Predict the structure.
Amino acid sequence: MKFQKLFLPVVAALTLAACATEQEQENNIPRLPAQDPNVMAAQENNYKLYNQTPAQMYRSLKLPSVNYDFDSIRPPEYAYDLLDKIAVVMKEHENLHLIMEGNSDVLGSEEYNYWISGARAAALKSYLVSRGISAERIRIHAYGNTRPITLDNSQEGRRANRRVDMQFTTRLWKAIY
């Protein structure tokens, strides 16, 4: 009888420990991160917009975002072809203005994120000015990390948030700013 009283709690404890160990092992199995639908939609939209001709850009007035590497204000290599097309459109259509909205990920202080988001947009603006576009026709807004595409804090999610959004407008600056 003493044996049974001692044996049953030991078996129960061992069984529970085995289940907990199995659960821990299952939690340690690497899994692919879930794809954020906002990030996927933004990537698909950017792909379509990157492949626009200058005429299509003018008709749609929509432009893709430019994504940045971590802690970088240097435009990525692929952005230069896009910026050249934007310059062509703006030279052909003097009524167009360009709005650039810089964004950052959540890493870093609030002040740094505002600075880097503005510096990224300023780098793109500087390139367009070097291509003959008047600086007066381009407005920059720095939003830091206040306007994320996704709240996913994975490397891919943070990369999606490090971007400069651009759009053409035909409105006069004095009318809206």
